[in-house]
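In full, the data:

***
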Amino acid sequence: GLSSPSAAWAEPILRGVVTADELLRRYCTRVYASTGSYEQTASVLGIDRRTVKTKLDPVLLQRLSERQETS
């Protein structure tokens, strides 16, 4: 459900309070945290790797990295 930590990020999206740019930023960051590659993230999302690079959220990426290290 939405109470799980991995799904909590979706709550503002489902309420419609996130801009399209913010949504892209969060999604790029989450996929990049999983792939570790601009090129692979771009391929998965169907966008240019330069867009991935400019959209990454360093604070979110750090939190995701810390979460992965502890699991």
Notes: The mean pLDDT is 87. The first helix runs from residue 10 to 15. The chain is about 70% helix and 0% strand.
